[in-house]
Design a protein that fits this description.
Helix 5 links the parallel strand 7 and strand 8. The mean pLDDT is 94. The chain is an alpha/beta fold. The protein is built from nine helices and eleven strands. It has two domains: 126 residues, Periplasmic binding protein-like II (D-Maltodextrin-Binding Protein, domain 2, 3-Layer(aba) Sandwich), CATH 3.40.190; 88 residues, 3-Layer(aba) Sandwich (D-Maltodextrin-Binding Protein, domain 2).
């Protein structure tokens, strides 16, 4: 990608998008009107800056587009960044949005009768196998991970496994499915991440946008 190509920022679809919008506006980014149309099937949008374009992709794909240089900047959940741990990605700004936690959960009746400190081998359903294995390995526990992309709460009920690792915001979904949190792996938030090659080859644009988002985040949190 040359310096004359558009500067691309990748943002995640879903619940984070409504929180990203005010931050982008505070940073001076105004997407074209269709960007806000949830029924639109378009994925790439122009902005009020002729040199800046936005792509709207799945949350897990933000890191992939960024790591391989298809985007120069992205809004990525720290869960995604931890799972991929790609050396080409640098995340200098915590945006203070998308707040939740990555936790271990299991059926309430199971949690009432066992001590997680005694685990030695467990089977877990999760969208985060790398993070999960590393977390339990640090405790000397062998974690056998079953990769699922959704409907995590069904896994214990249908006998796929006894535990899950998933994002938790309020805990209501776990409760509705008879599950409880038993361990917190990490607090999660969305971060502004950049491609390291772009930081070298397009440093002016990268540093300008990083500073704008840093100022926007500070203004939003203090307001």
């Amino acid at each position: 990608m040359s310096a004359n190509d558009p500067f691309i920022i990748a943002v995640p679809k879903g619940r984070i998008l409504s929180e990203v919008g005010p931050l982008m506006a505070c940073a001076g980014i105004e997407p074209e009107a269709e960007f806000h149309d949830e029924s639109s099937r378009r994925l790439q949008f122009s902005t009020n800056d002729p040199e800046l374009q936005i792509i709207r992709v799945r949350s897990f794909d933000t890191a992939t587009f960024l790591a391989f240089g298809a985007a120069q900047m992205a809004v990525c959940g720290s869960d995604v960044l931890m799972e991929f741990d790609h050396p080409e990605i640098y995340s200098p700004v915590d945006l203070g949005i998308g707040l939740c936690r990555l936790s271990v959960a299991e059926p309430a009746d199971l949690a009432a009768n066992e001590d997680p400190r005694l685990w030695s081998h467990i089977r877990i359903a999760t969208k985060y196998p790398n993070v999960t294995r590393c977390y339990f390995a640090s405790r000397g526990v062998q974690a056998e991970c079953i990769k699922l992309n959704g409907a995590m709460e069904l896994a214990p009920r249908l006998g796929l496994c006894r535990r899950i690792v998933d994002l938790v915001q309020t805990g209501s979904t776990l409760e509705e499915n008879g599950l409880v949190e038993v361990e917190k792996i990490s607090e999660i938030s969305s971060r502004l991440a950049i491609n390291r090659t772009a930081l070298k080859t397009r440093s002016g644009a990268v540093n300008r946008w990083v500073e704008r988002f840093r100022e926007a985040t500070s203004a939003t949190l203090s307001g």
